Each structure stands twice: as structure tokens, then as C-alpha cells.
Amino acid sequence: MSEMAQTALKDNTDLPSGKKKNNLWILLIAILVAINIAVAHYFPPIRPEISIKAESLLHSMSGETLTPTPWFTIPLIGPVYLTNTLTAVFVCLLILIAVAVAVHFQTNKNQLKSRGITAFFEFLITSLYSVANNTVEEKWRNKIYPFYISIFIYIMTANLTKLLPFYESFGVVIPAEAEGYAKSTLFPGFWMLNPAKGHHQLISFFRGATTDLNFTLAIAIVAVLMVQIYGIQSKHFAYFEKFFDIKQLGVTIINFFKYLFTGKQLKSMEEKTPQYTAKSFITNFFQGILNLFVSLLELISELAKVVSFSFRLFGNMFAGMVLVMFLGYMVPIALGSFIMLYELFVGILQAFVFCMLTAVFMNIAVQHE
Amino acid sequence: MDPQVGKYIGVGLVILSMFGAGIGIGNIGKGALDGISRNPDAYGNIMTTMFLALAFAESIAIYALVVAFLILFG
């Protein structure tokens, strides 16, 4: 009884302060919207230039035309361009290394509770484990989970760094190929692009790493390659049976010749068709051809996995980038926040889908029938 | 006729494939809701599987979107 009264008293005392807090939030949102309107007024957004290829940051004038220059050249492989997605990958790697170092210094051997960033990653990894524990076989967890978790963390970092403020709005101003925008000086040496027509375009320093097809393709190739390697580790040569299934066809043909010369069937065929007839031979023969065809389709679907993995992630992230850019250009006030919230959801979901599919495919590859 | 017109008509036609993806996503949501209302305890498992299936259905629309972007900006 007294406890209830106490809590009621507590609630009563808490009420006014809670109300104050709400007012503060409304004030904060109003201030942010006001800043938003002011910034959109003084720095009007320009129509974004969308290119599917990542743009090079280094250019050189050769005569009249502007050509991208390679950052450095690797013998036998070719030139490497310093593109804006490459710098984004560097940012992503720096963040991951910083996290790793922080986790290393935060953990002791005889520590029971984790705190800070370690606690966050512990939570993330244990919840990912508990999701995958339903599907992945216990024997293979030690081999499958490192890929599962690291793919998730890498892609999630790459997707979320895309949402950092000013990420795609600072860059190099270069002469435009076709029509561009006028530039005006902000400070000596720093320019700003105006919506007015001119001859300049912007190449941003950073662009979401997953909006480059090379990035997603690289991770997809690694994932699918590891699926094959685990399949071979699990089943050895029997793994290739899945891709080139000539078992039934071969048995049927051998059986046919055996019956032709000796009048007896193979044992495995006898179980299936006790009475050997031309009809049973033909059905088995066509079944075998069908099996071979289906297994060849399996081989193609393995290649299609790479394509679907990479295009799913790339498409989602690129579409998100275009959405953010064009809505930011058309409705520069307040709407962007909601789109960013949606992009946050999509980024985490796509990272989860990628790593979960990797785990599921690996699990299918290592399973014995 | 301006060749640009054909480009834009093509983009519009490509986006038609999202019709199917929409039907698929709707079906997945319906299936998940049916499952959850029959067995509310399985909420977590159903949600995980639903998101995976959603991503599959959505990726079809995303392929179309990539093709549309390739036509528009490529």
C-alpha cells in the first residue's frame, strides 16, 4: 500500500519536469527547421548529377578536354583511380580499425561486464548469433559465423557512413562536360556552386561505398567462393555431383549393355524396375537426361547468385542515394530527415539480408542429404 | 521524333515490372500476418524469414530500377 502511494507521489513529482522536456524538444525541432530553411535559402540546392560509375577525384587537362588521371599504376593489372567510393571505403576501414582498437583496449581478461562500444558489439553479435542458430548446423558454426558476422559489420558500416552529414556535398569543382553550374567564391580558394547556369560541376570527396558495383561484386564473389569451398570441405568430390549429375544416366546405360550381353540387371536398377522392359529403359534414360539438365541449371544458378547478391545491394543503395539527392533538391526542407530514417532502415536490412543469405547458402552447401 | 523520348518510354516500361514485385511483397506480408495471428509465439522467427523473403521479392523490383537507372544515366 505504502509502495503504491510512493510511486504515485513519484509520478506526480515527475510530471512537471516531463512536460518541460517535451517543450524543449518542440523548441529544438523548431530551431532545426528554422536553420534548415535559412540554409536552404542561402545555399540553394543544385540539381544533382547522377553517374552510375564512381567518379575519379584526380583530373588533368590535356588540351581542351578533362581526363581522369590514374592514382598509381600496378604493373600487369593496370591503372588504379582514386574514386570517391574508394575514399569512402578508406573511411569505412578507418572506422572499423578504430572500433577494433577501442574494443581491444576496453576488454580485460578477468572482466565480467562489458561497457561502451564493446557492449554494443557484444549485443549485436549475440543477437545475430541467436538469429542464425535456428538455421546453421552446429558443427559448422565455427566456420560459417566469421563470414556471417564480418560481412554484416562491414556492409553495415559502409551503408551507415553514407548517411553522415555533408558526406556527398563537399568535393572538387571541375569544368563540366556538358552544361553545369556557376560557381561563386565562399572563401579564397573555396567555391560554392549556384543553381545558375555555368560551366562547373562537383565531384564529391565521398560517395557511399556500396553505391559502387565493384564493392558489392567483390563481397559477393568472396561469399559465393567460400560457399563452394565449404561445400568441397564437407563433401569432397561428391559436392560436384550437384553440378554434373550423370549418375542415373550412366547407370541406365551400363544396365542396358549388361542386360544386352548377360540378360541380368544391375542390382540398383533391379530395385527400381524389377521387370526390365524397353519402357522402363526409356523412362530411366529420360529421367537421367533431365537430372543432368537440372544439375547444369544448378551450376548456372551458382553464377546467378553472384549477380543477384551484388545487384541487390548495389541497386538498393544506389536507389537510396538517388532518392536522397533528388528529394533534397526538390524539397530541401524537413523531408530529408524522414528519407534518411528510411535509408537507415534499408541500410541495416540489406546488410542483414546479405549476411543471412551467405549463411543460408553455406549451410545448404555443407549439408548431407 | 527526339530520341530522348524513346529513352523515357523505355524507363517507364521497365518500371512496369514493379507491379509483380508489389503483388509478391503483399503476399509475403499477408502470409506473415496469417502465421503470426495463428501462432503469436513464432513472431521472431516469422519476422526474420519474412524480411528475407521481402528482400528477395524486392530485389526483382531493384533489378528493374538498376536497368532504369542505366537507361537514364548510363
Shape of chain A: elongated
Largest β sheet strand count, sense and barrel closure of chain A: 2 strands, antiparallel
**Major sheet: arrangement of strands of chain A:** 1-2
Strand elements of chain B, count: 0
List keywords for this structure.
A: 369 residues, alpha+beta, two-stranded antiparallel ribbon, 6 strands, disordered N terminus, B: 74 residues, mainly alpha, 88% helix, elongated
Describe the structure.
The complex is a heterodimer of chains A (369) and B (74). Chain A is an alpha+beta fold. Chain A has helices at 2-42, 84-106, 116-132, 141-161, 213-235, 247-262, 267-272, 278-330, 335-366, and strands spanning 59-62, 65-68, 72-74, 78-80, 171-187, 190-204. Chain A has a two-stranded antiparallel ribbon with strand order 1-2. In chain A, β1 (59-62) and β2 (65-68) form a beta hairpin. Chain A is elongated and about 95 Å long. By secondary structure, chain B is an all-alpha fold. The radius of gyration of chain B is 17 Å and the shape is elongated. The model of chain B has no long low-confidence stretch (mean pLDDT 86). Chain B has helices at 3-15, 18-38, 43-73. In chain B, α2 (18-38) runs antiparallel to α3. In chain B, 88% of the residues lie in helices and 0% in strands. Chain A binds chain B through residues 50-52, 131, 134, 308, 311-312, 314-316, 318-319, 322, 349-350, 352-353, 356-357, 360, and chain B through 45, 48, 51-52, 55, 58-59, 62-63, 65-66, 69-70, 72-74.
Please give the structural blueprint.
The complex is a heterodimer of chains A (369) and B (74).
Chain A: H1 2-42, E1 59-62, E2 65-68, E3 72-74, E4 78-80, H2 84-106, H3 116-132, H4 141-161, E5 171-187, E6 190-204, H5 213-235, H6 247-262, H7 267-272, H8 278-330, H9 335-366
Antiparallel strand pairs in A: 1-2, 3-4, 5-6
Helix pairs in contact in A: 2-4, 4-9, 5-8, 5-9, 6-8, 8-9
Chain B: H1 3-15, H2 18-38, H3 43-73
